[in-house]
Amino acid sequence: MTTPTQKDLISANRKDIHIDLAKSDASRSLRPHPLDLITLPHTALPEMDFNEVNTTCQFLNRTLSFPFMITGMTGGTMRGDTLNLAFAEVASQCKVALGVGSQRGSIARNRSQNELRRLAPDIPLIGNIGGVQLAQENGLDLAKAAVDDLEADALAIHLNPLQEIIQPEGDRNWRGVLTAIEKAVRDLPCPVLVKEVGAGINLPVAQKLQNVGVRHIDVACAAGTSWARIEAERLPEEARDIYEPFLDWGHLITDILPEMRQSLKDVTLIGSGGLRDGLDLAKLLWLGCDIGGGASILLKALESEALDIQQVDLHKSLETLKEQLTIALFLTGHKTPVFRDEVSGIR
After folding, report:
1. Local structure of 272: helix, strand or coil
2. Mean pLDDT across the stretch 72-89?
3. Which of 148, 173, 245, 265 yields a CA-CA distance of 20 to 30 A from 331?
4. How many CB atoms lie under 10 A from the CB of residue 78?
5. CATH number of the domain encompassing residue 39
6. pTM higher than 0.85
7. Are 150 and 103 in contact (CB under 8 A)?
């Protein structure tokens, strides 16, 4: 049994502040949304029945009703755990994948999240720890504990150097992270999924990950929730000025995803970073990702301003995403959410 440190307790308070900021306009990137520059090719003669469109897909050896993952954002506090329980129940009903936020805090405070697996026995559950934590002493033990507690189908290793630089309590020593990921790929009983948190993973980094055995990557690009802006909101104004030029730092998904799809044939690519609706999801699939991901729009649907849990609204939001994707597929002449054979100027 582990005993929570003062740093763990500070982290718990920080996580709840993160939830509030993630729901606010302060967390929004100010860059133009890259998906607004994409227009999917309209098919005036689809030659199919709308009801023939089948959005189901396979992910981590489980069937999803459509290619979408609620990406990890929170957990490890009473409020965060309550949100995750609600996410799990609705994700199971809607048959989408679910990632949790970093599990380090919950493990340190002996707060098991195994209830998520009971609520969602048939969907992919993805655990989560930080790359820096993985590279530290006993990091692999932490990773194994995260997988075991959640009975996870995969473990996400999040890479967030920009966030850590701005965060007052952030980790600045990033030595040994790639080697630690390689060991995790070799020793964990489930696949490793490597993800950014809003600044993107480009092809050179993705190739390094592929070379050490990673086969699932969430590119998590700029234009959505900006964790740099969230951390900056926690700083005094004089300190914030230092980081102002970097608050919208990062790759845009339209710049990197097509090249990654061409080069990484055996890697499952999750596209996230500013997903707003089912048309955005269709555009991400068209650009080359296998699964789309998002969290902040669903967080706003789930938790009201009064902090009430609204599972009905979350369920409606997910069903709307699916229906919008179905419409986009029909209007582009596709019966399934696979655009691999498309020939376009962007790819």
Report:
1. strand
2. 87
3. 265
4. 10
5. 3.20.20.70
6. yes
7. yes
